[in-house]
Give the backbone structure.
Amino acid sequence: MKQPIGVIDSGVGGLTVARELMRQLPKETFIYLGDTKRCPYGPRSEEEVRAFTWQMVNYLLKKDIKMLVIACNTATAYTLEELQETLHIPVIGVIEPGARAAIKFSQNRRIGVIGTEGTIESEAYPNALVSIDQKIRVNSLACPPFVPMVEEGTLSGPQAEKIVAETLKPLKDMNHIDTLILGCTHYPIIKDLIQQEMGTHIQVISSGEETAREASLILAYHKALEVDEAQPQHEFYTTGDIEKFRLVANNWFDEPVRVLKFVELEHVPSSAY
Amino acid sequence: MKQPIGVIDSGVGGLTVARELMRQLPKETFIYLGDTKRCPYGPRSEEEVRAFTWQMVNYLLKKDIKMLVIACNTATAYTLEELQETLHIPVIGVIEPGARAAIKFSQNRRIGVIGTEGTIESEAYPNALVSIDQKIRVNSLACPPFVPMVEEGTLSGPQAEKIVAETLKPLKDMNHIDTLILGCTHYPIIKDLIQQEMGTHIQVISSGEETAREASLILAYHKALEVDEAQPQHEFYTTGDIEKFRLVANNWFDEPVRVLKFVELEHVPSSAY
């Protein structure tokens, strides 16, 4: 039996990361757990985010996962280091892969980052970038209209273009960056719109693609890549409404997804983490 | 004092990898050792390549390196696994990073690989690609004229364009690939020419850029990234003619390089490896 890779997220955004993981690692089996009931994590306290994340992690550890991917910017910012130190399996988040990719692409060392207000305020991306190269200049911009727009399904057309143009205006006006990190897992769904608005001279980086690439390296590094070529059977779990989750997932994936069941995480006693 | 990262190559080609390492990891110190005297490794036996590589590795281990980068396709193919199993520091090669990047970029799963005759015959890239995704189709092409062309300094103009066009014709005629791996460390020097000939719809991947990106991740994963922001002092060593090496290095780097000394590797007794 294939040993699965666990993917956790505060909701549906991490599905873009899961999709890239499945594309770049087609032999691997993934178990996705989205905490849609308590989403979004952005406005929550660090303590709450840590508690919720540990509940998800403990649920997946029982399924014998060989690696954990934190497909949520907020959870990565608050728990990555702690999980890496505590768990006996490799743990990767979505922030550093995007930062490293941006450093690779940028020629002028001026990098833009867009994300939710929480992610931008946390300065997780500037910190990750500058810790590697102190000469990098970062222009950050919170884009609150993007998540509701994506979840409502406004993905193209004049209305979508107008929202994207108005939201990105402050970043475009600065006109110095050559690389833009999509620092929110929802944004790859409107990557084409963002690319079109920013111009083809800007390298737009999707954290999901880069996280999948790094997951591939870490598995290879640990000699833990799956060799069995049989079609993997992925599993999706949600803490919220199953039908709503399935609807979004089926919109974002080429094939229908198996949303197995509702998970009641609140029942995990707090002593478990 | 900063703990250095060792970079070994059969000659000067690995300097393109070193250049990317220095750009993407500007706080790190690098020690480069090029075995120019016994270059190229391509036509040599596996036993010889292994012996020469171990001599270089033993020389660098005495300099207390914290990571080893094998910036040579032939040496990677023959020694990566053995070095990873034997050394107590992380070891990375140039083949897998290029393969993983190609998998990330390719949408149609048709990937081209160009390299020296030795690298193409070894099938190291197709093996790395297909081991991750068995549905990938690889078109390989040996490009023997490229290394002499780059070393002679024919980097632009009608003569260079003619060589590149004639050499790449078989690959271009197939016209299916959407991604092309430069599977030789010399080729990034003529990346623009290759991109121009293949067309802008082809994603051209430089192994050096991707290797540097993965070195950055592995260092972070081991919490071994340098934090000191002082300008690092890199060192370059060659087993061959110092002036010839310096000439090539100075052509490829923005700043003059310090070629410290000639290293006589033959003096390492074979029992040392």
